[in-house]
Specification:
- The protein has 261 residues and is α/β, with parallel strands linked by helices.
- The protein contains 8 helices and 8 strands.
- The strands form 2 sheets. The chain has a 5-stranded parallel sheet. The protein has a 3-stranded antiparallel sheet with strand order 1-2-3.
């Protein structure tokens, strides 16, 4: 069985849109996905989408509100993005229930990408965004929430922008829907999708070619099936780590010649 997050009631929130996507129930091979959205946002099962097609694609260039907006207007674009996201979520749920786990992950990432495009369009201007964009970006993947929070805090105090994920599946969804990080810091022992499987998934993605991956784990490199090199991780750090040594290695790696794609 594939679980889309660490557990039931885990959520992905799009704050600028007021939309929340949640895992409501997991039972055997069946997964129930919920979408909480404002009243003016239509969320339909994919088999019912045709019933709303007239509103999504108004005839004669008229907008759903009856105005003279063209099909290329912002309102029209937003409705199409919402429709695509809703369809993709419904399809992903069907694929999960049918045991098509790999296809479901691809479809889920497509849905999240649609929501992200909407969320970005609704976001207010952030004066700090330019400063954040200039900072090196790390994705920290570890199922120990306390440890993850502490290491993320140290990295942020050392000049990094840090995103976190609780397991490899969350990390892969994040990599499919967010700006590519400069480095992934990856634990090896995690639920849902462990470190070795995550490394294989990253190295199999053409869009992630050359992405730097550091193992930060309690397991020694000698006992792991994950190699150090282009098909595995770039460097290996065994816990307990020395945080400053990790930061220094990150700076050394990120200022070196970029890895070949």
């Amino acid at each position: 069985m594939l679980v889309l997050s660490r557990g039931v009631e885990d959520k992905i929130v799009f704050p600028n849109l007021g939309i929340t996507v949640a895992i409501l129930r997991v039972s055997g091979n069946r997964v129930r996905v919920g979408v909480d959205a404002p009243q003016d946002v239509k969320v339909l099962r994919h088999e019912l989408a045709h019933t709303y097609a007239g509103d999504l694609n108004p005839a004669d260039g008229a907008s759903p509100s009856g105005s003279t907006e063209s099909p290329g207007s912002t309102d029209h674009r937003q409705r199409n993005l919402l429709n695509n996201a809703s369809l993709a979520l419904s399809l992903a749920e069907r694929q999960l229930n049918a045991g098509m786990h790999a296809k479901a992950l691809v479809t889920l990432r497509r849905a999240m990408a649609q929501f992200d495009r909407l969320d970005a369009g609704a976001a207010p201007t952030d004066p700090a965004a330019a400063d954040q964009a200039d900072r090196p970006h790390a994705l920290l993947v570890d199922d120990d929430a306390n440890e993850s929070e502490l290491l993320a805090g140290y990295l942020e105090m050392s000049g990094f922008q840090v995103d976190t994920a609780a397991d490899g599946l969350q990390a892969m969804v994040h990599l499919g829907r967010a700006r590519r990080p400069d480095v992934v810091l990856l634990d090896m022992h995690m639920p849902v999708m462990d470190g070795p499987e995550t490394v294989r998934s990253i190295r199999a993605e053409k869009d992630l070619a050359g992405l730097r991956v550091f193992a930060v784990t309690g397991e020694t490199a000698e006992r792991s099936p994950v190699p150090i090199g282009p098909r595995g991780v770039d460097r290996w750090f065994t816990k307990p780590i020395k945080p400053q040594a990790l930061v220094d290695s990150l700076h050394d790696e990120l200022t070196a010649t970029p890895a070949a794609s």
